[in-house]
Design goal:
Elements (H helix, E strand, L loop, with lengths): L1 E7 L6 E7 L2 E5 L1 E4 L11 H6 L5 E4 H6 L3 H7 L2 H5 L5 E4 L2 H6 L4 E4 L2 E5 L6 E4 L1 H11 L3 E3 L11 H24 L9 E6 L5 H14 L3 E4 L8 H14 L6 E3 L5 H9 L4 E4 L1 H7 L2 E4 L2 E4 L19 H5 L2 H9 L3 H27 L3 H11 L7 H20 L2
Parallel strand pairs: 4-14, 5-6, 6-10, 10-11, 11-12, 12-13, 13-14
Antiparallel strand pairs: 1-2, 2-3, 7-8, 8-9, 15-16
Helix pairs in contact: 6-7, 7-8, 8-9, 10-14, 11-14, 13-14, 14-15
The structure holds one RNA strand.
RNA sequence: GGGUCAGUGGCCGAGUGGUCAAUGGCAUCAGACUGUAAAUCUGACGGCGGAAGCCUACGGUGGUUCAAAUCCAUCCUGGCCCA
């Protein structure tokens, strides 16, 4: 893998570059659609390519459980399995340790996990995660980490960071001790943790850059902390990261977060929001998010976004999409997903274009002049997440 | 004509003397969703009021009772059975 820095904004930390991988070049800044189960939900590869997707994500934990490694190995890796011939980045399963916390037990460097599907016991370690990602054959492999929750006191964050660093070192050692399985090279990215604590974040950057990785991710953000903290830490961490390596802000975000992150020096982002919200009836436009299920769209025969060139906008009206959503028709979810993915990719594409043409500040300003930034729901989201978790547990217990 | 069962808020449906403006579900109206246990979750949902509260409501009417969606009488409407 090779990262080339092509352009730097004069007044922002934003930058444009390219990442050469075994499956092609990625132009950054880039948004990466999430395809947890070897599918970007509701979209075919053709549709992803029509939206100009350059790279997609897969998930170690989920693909390990289903379809399982035997299948993946027999298929010849994730690219062949899903017939996606462009770059793939796989998450290490670290996020699932956080989001499925009640099903796990951490003992030293081994995590005992109960499958959320059938309750079966599994043992995970940095080594396991690397082996799985070798079998998946992703172009970019993520180290195994712990994503700290929020709120999280300094002492917990410090201990968690120690563990995470140890795991990252083991990940690297194990990764380097094995060869790729399918004849193409794989890159390994580290993940900066440290919760909301500046000192820990700096310590993490220092440790990981001393160790040396192909790229650096920022993890553990957008887990419920206030927005200003998230933006501030993104800026501070990016400022300390080496210029000649790609930076990946994990799990971010809303359109405004994506642009704010790019402005702070982030090259790569991913988020489930465009696909999940599409299925739940929310779509994004240059004038803000719209909730398609609202009564006001019942007779709105304009496209979602008149400027958008996606299939849904070229062919259908808000009224039609409103109808499909309310009928719970599967096409509605597909069209909304096509649109949202197109929008997120177009946002990063335009940001890159502006950077290359030395007009990023204008682009940034124009975007925020027009796009109404959503209220910060970070506090409620903690409660929501907790409620949902409880419901899942109750559902498990009742059968 | 006789018998019998039933009529509950926009719909379906629980409740069978007070804790009932009345469980649920659907529909409706909003909101949320950030490395996907997510085609999911949350809230509102008779009227007026900021609230305490007041008013109107469980087919109609009239009763019993301190108190009725719930008991009694009668009428109306519908299902089923018998003639």
């Amino acid at each position: 893998m090779k990262f080339t820095l092509e352009k730097r904004s004069a007044s922002f930390s934003a930058r444009a570059g390219t990442i050469q991988t075994a499956h092609g070049i990625i132009k950054t800044p880039v948004f990466m659609p999430v395809g947890t189960h070897a599918t970007v939900k509701a979209l075919s590869n053709d549709e992803l390519e029509a939206a100009n997707a350059q790279i997609i994500l897969g998930n170690t934990y989920h693909l390990y459980l289903r379809p399982g490694m035997e299948v993946m190995q027999a298929a010849g890796g994730l690219h062949k399995f899903m017939n996606w011939n462009k770059p793939i980045l796989t998450d290490s399963g670290g996020f699932q340790i956080f989001s499925l916390a009640h099903l796990r037990k951490i003992e030293g460097d081994v995590i005992t996990f109960r499958s959320h599907i059938d309750g079966s016991l599994h043992r995970f370690s940095p080594e396991t995660s690397m082996e799985i990602q070798r079998i998946l054959g992703s172009d970019i492999v993520m180290v195994f980490d712990e994503c700290t929750p929020y709120p999280c006191d300094h002492e917990y964050a410090r201990k968690s960071l120690q563990t995470t660093h140890r795991w990252e070192k083991s990940s690297k050692d194990h990764f380097q001790s094995r060869d790729p399985l399918y004849g193409h090279s794989q890159a390994l990215f580290a993940i900066v943790q440290g919760s909301v604590y500046e000192d820990l974040r700096y310590e993490s950057v220092k440790y990981l850059t001393d160790e040396g990785f192909d790229g650096y991710a920022i993890g553990g953000l957008a887990v419920g902390e206030p927005k200003d903290i998230m933006y501030d830490l993104t800026q501070k961490v990016c400022d300390k990261l080496p210029e000649d390596r790609p930076r990946y802000l994990m799990g971010i975000g809303k359109p405004e977060d994506i642009l704010q992150s790019i402005a702070r020096g982030v090259d790569m982002m991913d988020c489930v929001l465009p696909t999940r919200n599409a299925r739940n009836g929310s779509v994004y436009t240059w004038d803000g998010k719209i909730n398609l299920k609202n009564h006001r769209y019942k007779k709105d025969f304009t496209p979602l976004d008149p400027e958008c060139g996606c299939y849904a906008c070229r062919n259908h009206s808000r009224a039609y999409l409103h109808h499909l959503y309310r009928q719970n028709e599967i096409l509605g979810m597909r069209l909304n997903s096509m649109h949202n993915i197109h929008f997120f990719l177009e946002l990063t594409r335009r940001a890159r274009e502006a950077l290359m043409e030395d007009r990023f500040p204008e682009f940034y300003r124009d975007f925020f002049t027009r796009y109404p930034v959503e209220k910060d729901h970070s506090k409620e989201n903690i409660v929501h997440r907790e409620n949902r978790r409880k419901r899942h547990i109750e559902a498990d217990e009742s059968g």
